[in-house]
Predict the 3D structure of the following.
Amino acid sequence: MTSTPISRSRAFQPEPPASCSVKIIGLGGVGGIVARYGGMFLASLGRNARLVLMDGDAFEPSNASRMFFGACGNKAAVIRDELLPRFRDSNLSLIAIEEYVTPENVARLVREGDIVLLTVDNHATRKVVNDHCAANLKNFLLLSGGNDGAGPDASGTVRRGTYGNVQAYLRRNGEDVSPSLTRFHPEIREPADRLPTEQSCTELVMSVPQILFANLMVATAMLNTLWLHLCGELHYGELSFDIADGLMRPVIQLPARVPPGSGNPDDRRIVGAPAVGG
């Protein structure tokens, strides 16, 4: 599929909705980067906005070689406390929720009109949030980003750790603008892993190592996608990259870019999408 080329002869201007609420779920290797630069971006807009950080996990000394943090403790609370002094004179509110997202609390944590950035390391959580949004909300943007670990994944397949992707599930006025997270991804629709709340302590510490620069790439791609959406120029439903191959490209393109507030339902229909590679 193709979409109308984006003009290179004009500047883009992000226009966040009134009282914009951005929620980041997962504050590890990717989420910590997204929170810091996403917070700086939102504060720079000069609008009232909320940045809500969610994670039930804690920073430990062993994390220091692959994550930025100034103290041990709950990840959401630590990052909030680090960012508060930086943004005290801005219109950005910072909130920490020290919980994992589960089927029991997702309706309380993810609400109508939210922009949600999923930076978790398991498909089970992606499915919980996707299914809640799909079944209950009429307006939202759900961005999910991740990259392979360097080694066997939850299904036993060995990965080199250089591939990653960002999915953008957008719904406006009850109509899907882009595909859900599960539509072309059976690994999310039927996850081989489990929620963090269902794992033992041994399972939680046995994570597959990731390449730091792949973490950085997926964080950057997620924030780029958020920026395009707020500029009314989002033209893809999924973006993939491979840092070893030097590639980044849309793999699901939308039939038309839809500026926020568009009332034309024909511009919001999904007319099809190619199979996702990778």
